[in-house]
Amino acid sequence: MSKTRDLLAALVIRLTFVVALFAAVLMPAAAQSTDAELKLLVDALAARGFSETEDAIKALAFTGDDRVAAVLGALGEGNLFVGKTSKQVVIGRAAGRDLVLTDPVTRAEIGTEPSAAYTKIRVNNRLRRTIQAAIGTLTLLSDNPVTRRAAAEAVMKTRDPETIPALDAAIAEETDAGILQVMQEARAAAVLNSDAAEADKVAAIATIAGRGDRESLSILTQYIAAPGEVGVAAQAAVDDVNTTIALWNAGQNIWFGVSLGSVLLLAAIGLAITFGVMGVINMAHGEMVMIGAYTTFVVQQQIRMYAPGLFDFSLLIALPLAFLVAGAIGVAIERGVIRFLYGRPLETLLATWGISLILQQAVRSRFGAQNQQVGNPSWMSGSFDVGLISITYSRLWIVVFAIFVFFALMALLKRTPFGLQTRAVTANRQMASAMGIRTPWIDAMTFGLGSGVAGIAGVALSQIENVSPNLGQGYIIDSFMVVVFGGVGNLWGTLVGALTLGIANKFLEPYAGAVLGKIFVLVFIILFIQKRPRGLFALKGRSIEA
Amino acid sequence: MSSNGTIRKFTTGALAGMLAATALMTAGSALAQEETIKVGILHSLSGTMAISETTLKDVMLMLIEQQNEKGGLLGKKLEAVVVDPASDWPLFAEKARELISQNGVAAVFGCWTSVSRKSVLPVFEELNSVLFYPVQYEGEESQRNVFYTGAAPNQQAIPAVDYLEAEEGVERWVLAGTDYVYPRTTNKILEAYLLAKGVAPEDIMINYTPFGHSDWQTIVSDIKAFGSAGKKTAVVSTINGDANVPFYKELGNQGIKAEDIPVVAFSVGEEELAGIDTTPLVGHLAAWNYFQSVEDPINDEFIAAWKAYKGKDTAVTNDPMEAHYIGFNMWVKAVEAAGTTDSDAVIDALVGVAVPNLSGGYSSMGPNHHITKPVLIGEIQDDGQFEIVSQTPGLVLGDEWSDYLEGSKDLISDWRKPLACGNFNVVTGKCGGAS
To answer: pTM (2 decimals)?
Structure first.
C-alpha cells in the first residue's frame, strides 16, 4: 500500500515538473493548485533520501502556490513532521512531549498528539539552500520589504538563469531603491550564468562589481577564464574589487586590534592596581576574572528561573555583584595571606599561585569542570556591517565598557580622598602612616578594588569567552605582559600597552599565523623590556627608585 | 620537664595507634584484594582537560557499578581505583605506574590527549598491563598493551571529507586545527588524501592556533576571504577543547552560516556544545561514531541510566563515553573467556571479541587492537544535539597506519601469533616500522 503511495507521489512529482515548466513558460502568474494536488506534493517531502526530498521541494516550488512558502519555511526550521503510521506530513510545534499539529495545506489546526508518533523530516545544508532559493523565488513579490530583500539575496545565491523571468517581474514592481539594486544584482548573477549575449554579460559584470564585496568577488572569479570580452571585464572587475577589499582589510585589522586591546585592557586593569600600584605579584588575578564570570552565570541562572523577563538586564545586575564578590574575596586574600608577605615577592608569587589553584578547584568542585552557558542579552547579540567590516555588538560593547571602566578608575584614583590615600601609601608608606592614614586598611581596600575590577572584567569576558574554571589562566600572562609593557604603576601605560599589543597582534596574525604572531609579540616585549625596563611610561619618584 | 614527658607519652601513643591502624588497613586491603578485581581509571579530574575527562571517569564508575549489580566478574566484585593525573602529561606515567604496581589493577581505562597516551605507553609495556584508550586519535601507532576504542582517521576524518565532497560539492578546503600532534597528523593525512583526489594545492588552506585560543576574529575573517573564490568552501576543524566555543561564537557573529561555509568538526560533541547557544550553528557538522541522538533501544537505555546516575535530566552522552562502554564490555567478555585477568591471556582473548555498540550494531576488536565502528555525520541542531545526516552502511575497522602517508602506507599491524607485530612492513617483510 505504502509502496503504491510512494510510486504515485513520485509520478505526481514528475508530472508536476512537466506541467509546472509549461505553466512557468505560458503563464508567469502562478495558478493555485487544488488542495489534493498540493497535499500529495507535500506528503512527498517525507521521502527516504535527501535527493528525493530535494526533488519534492523543487516540485512544490514549481507550483508557485502561495501556500508553499510557509510549508517550505516550516521544513527549513525543522517543524515539518511525518506520521509514523499515517505517513501524513504535518506542521508541528513542540509543546512539552506533545506536538501541536497544523495541516500544511489548509492551515487548520488538527490537534495535539504525542511527539513519539511523528518523525521530524530531516534537512541538511544542501536542502536548506534549496529551500531558501525556492522561498526566495516565491516571495520576491511579497508585501514585506524585509522578506523581499531576503528573497532577492537568496535568489542571488542560486545564480539560476530560470529565475530571470521572476526577477524581471519583481524588478518591474519594486519601488524600494535598495531592494531594487539587490534584485538587479541577482539578475546580473543569473545572466552571467545563462547563455545571454556578450554585451549583456559585460553589463552584468559591471553591476556585480558595483557591490565591491566578497560575494561579488566569489561570483566574478568564476568568469576570469571566460572567452572574449567577458573574461577581460571579469578580470578587471576582480582587480578592482580586490583593491577595495584590501583597503577595508586594513580598517578591519585596526578594529580587531582595538577589540583585542580592549579585552586585554579589561583583563589587565585590575592587575594594574594590585601589581602596578601596590607591587603585589598576584597570580590569582585571573581567578578573580573567572569568579566575575561565574557570578554572571549564577545571576543569569537565577533570572532564568525566577524572572525570565529581566534577562536583558542580567549583565547590569551582575556587574555590581561581581564587583562585590570578587572584591570581597580579594580583601579576604589580602587580610588572610598577602599582608604577611609584603616585601617578599617570591613568597607572594607562590602563595597567590597556590590560591589560584585552590580557587579553580573550588569552582570546579562546586560548578563542575564543564563550560557554563552564559547567554548574550539581545542587545549584545548579532552584528552590523560598516562597509565590508562586520562589527559584532558584543565586541563593540566591550570596547565601550573597557573605556568606561578605565576612566572611572582614573577618576577614582585621581579625584577621591580614597585615591589620594592610595597614592600616598604607594609613594611613601611611612610618611603616609605618619600623616594618619590607616595604611593596612588602604592596602586591603586597594587590593579589594583591583580584585573587584577584575570581577567586572569577568562579566564582560563571559560574553566572548568560555566560562570554565580555566578562564583566568588564559589571561594571567597577557595581563602581566600589558602591565609590564605599559609601565608599572601607570594606568595610562596600561591603556596604551593594551591597545598597542592588541593592534600589533592583529596586524601580525594574517601574515605569521596565530601561533607565530603571539611569539613575535613576546619576543618584541622581551627586547623592549631590555631597553626600557620600566615600560612605556615609567613612574619617577624617590620611593619608586628605592 | 613534665611537659616533655607528656609529649613523649603522646608521641608513643600516637605511634602505637598509627601502627595498629596501618596493620588493620593492610589486613583490610589484603582481604579486599582477595575479593575484588581492581579496575584503574586514569582521567584528569583537574586542569585544562578536566572539562572532557571528568565525564569519562563518571561513566566508568557507572559501568563498574552496573557490572557489580549483574554479579561482578569471575565471581568477584569489581573495584574502581580512581587517580587524578591533573592534565599533566608526565604525571600520567607516574599515576599509571602507581595504578599497576601499587594498586595491582587488572586493566586501566584512561587518557585523552595523544601526548598523555604517548607518555604512558612505556609504562604499560614495561609492566605488561592493559590500557583502553577511548578517544579519536591520529593513528600511526599500534601497541600490544593498548586497545584503541576511539576512531582512527579512516573512521572519522576521511568519511567526513567524502561526505562534504559528495553531498555539499565542496572544492576548497580549510584545515583548521589546534597546534599539537593530533591535528597536525590528521591534517597531514587529509592533505595527502585531498591532493590524491585531485584538489589543487591552492585550494587547501591550513591554519593552526594555540590551545585555548580565544580571539578568532582574524582567522574567521580569513576563512571568509578564502571562501569567496567562487568555489564551494568548507572548514575541516580539528580544533580541540575550550577553543571551540569562541570559534563557533565568532562564526555566528560574523554571519558565516552553515549553508555558505559548513564546518565539520572532529572534536566537538554534545559535551562541548553544552556551553553554547547553538541557534547560529545549526547545520554545522561533526563526524563521530556515536551521537546521543542515535535511535536505538540500547542507546535509550544507556542514556536513561546515565541521566539517573548523574541525577540530572540535562546530562548528555558523547562518543568517547560510548568508546568506554564498548571497551569495558569487551574487557569483561575477554576476561570471562580467558577465565583470568592475567594480562597476556586477556590481550590474546580480546582480539575478535564482539559486543553491542550503542548505535544498533556489534563492534569487534580487530587484530590491530582497533575496533569496528559505524561512521556517523551529524548536523548541529538548535537544542545542542546532532541530527544524523549520513551513516556508513556497514562498520569500518580502524586503520592505524594511514594509507595516504609516505612511510606508513606499507605498514600493517597484527597482534595475533605468529606475526605479533604492530608495525609489519609488507614490502620489506620485516617487523620494525617505517622503511
So the answer is: 0.80
